[in-house]
């Protein structure tokens, strides 16, 4: 058996009263074997470290984590390290072993004061507000951003060359390549994302990758595999367009277009449009969507006259509006 790939780094963990790790922030990570104990660079977290619980009931402790990237996840610190690697673009989606990730991450109340345990949240919120009330500065209420196992990416990693319309729509573990714009209704899950310049106004599900020069239109959906039965990981190639409110349960290759509002699933019966056959009065072939999965140069439309879903050939890919991607 070949050795597992490794990554390592210092992180700052938030640990609740029960000893659960709520999150770990790694400002910097390295791929490869970790240095020996006496050779480790020491990350200086300074006064951010506190062994006593603060008003949230949270301690902040430095952790040195080494992840065996081809092996299943061992704990929350390991899970956080792998999520950071993808958002830092040190690993592409679908290249790390993420087995067991939901079981290793704790459910957390994410707030403007950082993570809280779910248990006794109301009491801990009261403690924070009482502590803050003694300050001469105006203090913020405790605003809950989400209750989830994954935090928002940009509280941990801000990749260069991207725009993100709404921080809540991109989870830690998303991979956003340089030149990506995620508009307000877009969504990018962990272990998913873009490999080049892209416009994302729809949902990029876990395990989905979108190639350079492609556009996911407003409200568009790309089926994932975590829930609902689908097993095949879908992707989109380069210079393709998934129209507004369209969806796919298959992969698109390069230079493809799916008409706005059309959903193509693996079982959808698709008529292969062939001008010469139509002119000669010959019947057209019909295949399942799955047979066209990942193929290049196809435009999928629902023929608004016949109602049939058709695959028509297309010669070239779409061009993004360059001005929107000089991030
Ligand atoms: C499917 C396409 C690409 C088709 O475009 P075009 O009509 O320009 O294609 P074309 O190649 O020029 O069309 C060739 C011929 O096919 C015909 N044709 C096109 N669609 C047809 C249909 N559904 N049924 C029957 N015929 C059709 C055309 O009229 C034309 O006929 P003739 O030869 O007789 O002329 C488009 O309708 C589309 O859906 N584009 C997606 C755009 C999109 O969604 N972008 C994302 C924006 S996201 C956004 O704005 C956010 C909004 C939001 O948040 O909701
Ligand atoms: O990148 C932007 O900004 C975009 N703006 C458009 C708009 O504001 O309508 C939509 C697509 C991307
Ligand atoms: Mg705009």
UniProtKB/TrEMBL annotation:
Residues binding Mg(2+) are: 168
> Which residues does the record give as succinyl-CoA binding sites?
203, 218, 221, 244, 259-260, 267, 288
**Its annotated pathway?**
Amino-acid biosynthesis; L-lysine biosynthesis via DAP pathway; LL-2,6-diaminopimelate from (S)-tetrahydrodipicolinate (succinylase route): step 1/3
- Catalysed reaction(s)? (S)-2,3,4,5-tetrahydrodipicolinate + succinyl-CoA + H2O = (S)-2-succinylamino-6-oxoheptanedioate + CoA
Which GO terms of the molecular function aspect are on file?
Answer: 2,3,4,5-tetrahydropyridine-2,6-dicarboxylate N-succinyltransferase activity; magnesium ion binding
Which InterPro entries does the annotation name?
DapD_actinobacteria, Hexapep, THDPS_M, THDPS_M_sf, Trimer_LpxA-like_sf, Type2_DapD
GO cellular component labels: cytoplasm
Record's family? Answer: Belongs to the type 2 tetrahydrodipicolinate N-succinyltransferase family.
Name the job this protein performs. Catalyzes the conversion of the cyclic tetrahydrodipicolinate (THDP) into the acyclic N-succinyl-L-2-amino-6-oxopimelate using succinyl-CoA.
The protein's assembly and partners: Homotrimer.
Q: What is this protein called?
A: 2,3,4,5-tetrahydropyridine-2,6-dicarboxylate N-succinyltransferase
Species, as recorded: Bifidobacterium vansinderenii
């Amino acid at each position: 058996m070949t050795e597992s790939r490794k990554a390592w780094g210092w992180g700052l963990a938030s640990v609740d009263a029960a000893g659960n790790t709520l999150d770990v922030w790694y400002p910097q990570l390295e791929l490869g074997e970790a240095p020996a104990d006496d050779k480790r660079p020491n990350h200086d977290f300074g006064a951010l470290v506190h062994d006593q619980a603060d008003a949230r009931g949270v301690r902040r402790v430095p952790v040195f984590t080494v992840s065996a990237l081809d092996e299943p996840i061992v704990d929350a610190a390991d899970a956080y390290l792998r999520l950071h690697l993808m958002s830092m673009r040190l690993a592409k989606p679908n290249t790390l072993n993420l087995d067991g990730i939901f079981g290793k991450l704790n459910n957390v109340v994410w707030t403007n004061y950082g993570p809280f345990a779910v248990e006794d949240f109301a009491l801990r919120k009261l403690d924070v507000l009482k502590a803050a009330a003694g300050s001469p500065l105006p203090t913020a209420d405790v605003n809950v951003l989400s209750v989830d196992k994954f935090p928002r990416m940009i509280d941990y990693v801000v990749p260069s060359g991207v725009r993100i319309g709404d921080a809540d729509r991109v989870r830690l573990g998303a991979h956003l390549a340089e030149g990506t714009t995620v508009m307000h209704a877009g969504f990018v899950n962990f272990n998913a994302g873009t490999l080049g310049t892209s416009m994302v106004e729809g949902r990029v599900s876990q395990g989905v990758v979108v190639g350079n020069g492609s556009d996911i239109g407003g409200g568009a959906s790309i089926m994932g595999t975590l829930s609902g039965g689908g097993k095949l990981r879908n992707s989109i190639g380069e210079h393709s367009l998934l129209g507004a409110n369209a969806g796919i349960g298959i992969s698109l290759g390069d230079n493809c277009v799916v008409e706005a509002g059309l959903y193509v699933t693996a079982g959808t019966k698709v008529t292969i449009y062939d001008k010469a056959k139509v002119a000669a009065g010959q019947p057209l072939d019909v295949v399942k969507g799955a047979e066209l999965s990942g193929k290049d140069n196809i435009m999928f439309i629902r023929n608004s006259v016949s109602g049939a879903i058709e695959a028509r050939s297309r010669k070239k890919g779409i061009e993004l509006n360059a001005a929107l991607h000089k991030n």
